[in-house]
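Comment thread on ticket #2218

A.B. wrote:
> Attaching the input chain for the structure job we discussed in standup.
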Amino acid sequence: MHGPTPGRSGNRGHDEGGRIKPNPHLHRTVMEIVDNQIRGNEPPETRQTYERLLAEGLAEPEVRRLLGVALVTEIFHMMKNREVFNRRRFVGYLNRLPQEPSDGK
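C.D. wrote:
> Ran it. Output below, let me know if you need it in another format.
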């Protein structure tokens, strides 16, 4: 017998379309980190990107979401490659927003 099929009510990890549902605890933690980076201006590129994207007309929730995507992508690379935070790579992700970073680079 196989596990639950995506889209069925027995599969709590996927939505009705079979997509992975976000973890609400992880989401809150990432958004807290993003907010701390903006407030604390550390790294300053996070706040600069926040202000740039707002000036480009993006809504504030979307800007915060994009910053979170950049952060999570950097964390993914840190864990995958067992390395420390790579500021240069992270700033590259920020500079390319609103284009979302991929897990390839």
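A.B. wrote:
> Thanks. Noting for the ticket: The chain has a mean pLDDT of 87.
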